[in-house]
Amino acid sequence: MSAPFATIPDDGAPLRVVVVGAGGMGRAWLRTVEESPLVELAGIVDLDLSTAAEAAASLGRPGLPVGAGTAALASDVGAQAVINVTVPAAHHPVTAEALAAGLPVLGEKPVASTVAQGLSLAAAAELHGQLFMVSQSRRYNRHLFAAKHLASSLGSLGILSAEFYKAPHFGGFRDAMDHPLLLDMAIHQFDMARFLLDSDPVSVTCEEYNPSWSWYRGDAGATAVFEMTGGERFVFNGSWCSPGQETSWNASWRISGERGTVLWDGDGEPVSTLPGPADSFADPGQEIAGSLRDFVSAVRTGSTPMGQVHRNIMSLAMVEAAIGSAATGSRVSVDALLEDSYRQAMLDERDPAVLEVLKAWSSVRAALAGAGVAP
Q1: What global pTM score does this model have?
Q2: Helices H, strands E: what count in the chain?
Q3: Residues 130 and 165 in one domain
């Protein structure tokens, strides 16, 4: 079971943070941090100091401290937390460094490049007693919460489906990826499915494909069928090269239960064949601003945020399992993937103390579920 994480009691002052990564997504986070009364931007970290300085200037703060080292700059400016907006390959080293320095971390998805690295970070969070939360920003959507609220009137849920059809011309690395849709986008819908069902994946059968007109080198289309721990089936159909009549970036959803159905187009209010329950639900905030609010609340009060690392790993496991199924043409067991990743994590771990935490786990799924929070 994961250790409780340290809290920083609210003294009336904003939480001082450094943002690591000053690229496109980093700048979106910087703007969100600057607009939030809950946090104060104390510095920007980037391997390219000129990029960090340009980002600071774009905020109207040319004198803001910048640096190339996360722990060093955080110490210099008295930061209390880190927001990691680096590329996925840097998620593990940057987060591990911050946790070891005694700093809670809010990181962009995915938790790490691989499930094995995610397990290492979960163990590091336990070792250092710090919160590591992954920002699955599309969970922070009032309409998504409303769809889940309506679905609670349907009785036993059996089928959840998501249709995702877009045609973005990104250029750059996505056009050259091996699995552009599954690796870069589908994790959002996979994570949203876990939220809607309060359930985790058991197995998956997946097929990837690439239409003849696709401008992506790798497969831009996929169909995946997941068995979930509650016995439900989650069906994902998606394409990144389908122009015309495109769906929302959130996908288009159908939740089917024993007494009725909820539909959500991904953008507007969901609709149901049955009246919703009379009780209300809390507004989660919107996307990364909602994620930031959840993180600060957790650090201040000890409440468990939705993206707590132990539970978020299961969303990346869905991606890896789907890719594995598409590659082999066979059903993939998520438990088998987790155990393979666990063995790899122990082989790769270079911190002896983190390795001892990993060795102490009785099983991977038990260790992840031991965080004590909902999916």
Answers
A1: 0.94
A2: 14, 14
A3: no
110: preceding bond cis by omega (within 30 degrees) = yes
**Residue 373 — very low, low, confident or very high, per pLDDT cuts 50/70/90?**
very low
Q: Do both 74 and 113 map to the same domain?
A: yes
Residue 2's pLDDT is 41
pLDDT band at 372 (very low <50, low <70, confident <90, very high): very low
Q: What is the DSSP string of 342-360?
A: HHHHHHH---HHHHHHHHH
- Kindly list the distances between the CA atom of residue 135 and the CA atoms of 29, 111, 187, 305, 341, in Å, as whole numbers in the listed order: 11, 9, 12, 10, 22
For residue 166, give the CATH number of its domain.
Answer: 3.30.360.10
Report the CATH number at residue 72: 3.40.50.720
pLDDT for position 375:
57
Which range is least confidently modeled, 76-80, 99-103, 181-185? Answer: 181-185
Number of domains observed in the structure of the chain: 2
- Counting Cβ atoms within 10 Å, is residue 156 exposed (0-12), middle (13-18) or buried (19+)? exposed
Domain that residue 109 falls in: 15-138+287-306+335-369
Give the mean model confidence (pLDDT) for residues 183-191: 95
pLDDT of residue 276: 84
* 70, 87: one domain: yes
Q: Do 148 and 245 fall within a single domain?
A: yes
Find residue 163's DSSP bridge partners. 237, 252
What are the CA-CA distances from residue 32 to residues 27, 59, 85, 289 (Å)? 9, 11, 13, 6
Place of tokens 């260790």: 367
Determine the straight-line distance between the first and last CA of the chain, rounded to whole angstroms. Answer: 16
| Sign of the torsion angle spanned by Cα atoms 147, 149, 154, 157 | positive
